[in-house]
Structures are given as structure tokens and as C-alpha cells.
């Protein structure tokens, strides 16, 4: 089963747009700032492994310096839900409140996935 959901997260008056395409034990998350043309400046992937506590993570496409945050965020999501994550996060580096954004994104994902098994709800 594949599901496709769009979302808007408001962080201190900034609209952050996103899409979550969820499959069994895998998801693709695209995130961008409102008012910016849709782009995929970076693409990363993370996948849990039984050989390490942290997921394996790799940058697939990188055209700016924001891939470090995207890689870190995708690893945390992959670990939290035990799923493979493909992520393109196109927020500007000067975006101030990434912590609040991440908490709101996790709240959305908590509703989307069961936290331990990575299955669609």
C-alpha cells in the first residue's frame, strides 16, 4: 500500500510545505519553504541496520550545504520508525527554528507510522 500526504507546518510565521509518500517500511519526505519554487537540491537516504545502533546514511544528490542537516534528520527518522527514509529537505540554512520544525514533523509522522515496527497505520 502506498499513501501520499501533503502537509503545511507553521513555524514562527514561516510556512513549510511537505509531501510524505509512505510505503511498507519505506518513505520519501520532501520539504521546502513556502514561496520557493519546488526543487530537489539534495536527496539523502537512511536505512536501519542490525549491525549498528545508528542507520546507514548516504547523500545521493547534493547541490548545497544543507545536506548535513537533511542527512541527520533522515537518520533520526529512520531510527525512530525502523524504516528506510529518502529525504529532500530544502530549507534555507538561515532558518532559525529547526528544533520546533522537527518536533512538529515527528508529530505528523507519529500519526502516520507506528513507532516500533515501521508499518503504515
How would you explain this protein's 3D organization?
With 121 residues, the chain is of the alpha+beta class. It has a single domain (3-112), classed as Ribosomal Protein S5, domain 2 (2-Layer Sandwich). 25% of the residues lie in helices and 39% in strands. It has 2 helices and 6 strands; from the N terminus they run βββββαβα. The chain has helices spanning 67-81, 98-112; strands at 3-11, 14-23, 26-33, 42-47, 56-62, 84-90. Strands 1-2-3-6-4-5 form a 6-stranded mixed sheet, covered by helices on one side. The longest helix has 15 residues, at 67-81. It is globular and about 40 Å long. The termini are close together. The relative contact order is 0.23. The model has no long low-confidence stretch (mean pLDDT 84).
Kindly summarize this structure in a few lines.
It contains two helices and six strands; from the N terminus they run βββββαβα. With 121 residues, it is of the alpha+beta class. The chain has a six-stranded mixed sheet, covered by helices on one side.
Secondary-structure map with pairings?
Layout: E1 3-11, E2 14-23, E3 26-33, E4 42-47, E5 56-62, H1 67-81, E6 84-90, H2 98-112
Parallel strand pairs: 3-6
Antiparallel strand pairs: 1-2, 2-3, 4-5, 4-6
Amino acid at each position: 500500500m502506498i499513501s501520499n500526504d501533503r502537509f503545511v507546518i507553521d513555524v514562527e510565521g514561516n510556512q513549510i510545505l511537505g509531501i510524505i509518500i509512505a510505503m511498507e517500511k519505506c518513505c520519501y519526505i520532501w520539504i521546502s519553504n513556502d514561496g520557493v519554487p519546488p526543487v530537489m537540491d539534495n536527496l539523502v537516504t537512511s536505512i536501519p541496520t542490525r549491525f549498528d545502533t545508528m542507520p546507514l546514511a548516504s547523500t545521493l544528490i547534493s547541490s548545497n550545504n544543507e545536506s548535513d542537516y537533511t542527512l541527520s534528520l533522515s537518520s533520526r527518522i529512520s531510527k525512530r520508525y525502523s524504516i528506510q527514509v529518502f529525504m529532500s529537505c530544502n530549507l534555507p540554512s538561515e532558518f532559525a527554528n529547526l528544533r520546533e520544525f522537527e518536533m512538529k514533523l515527528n508529530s505528523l509522522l507519529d500519526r502516520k507510522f507506528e513507532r516500533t515496527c515501521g508499518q503504515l497505520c
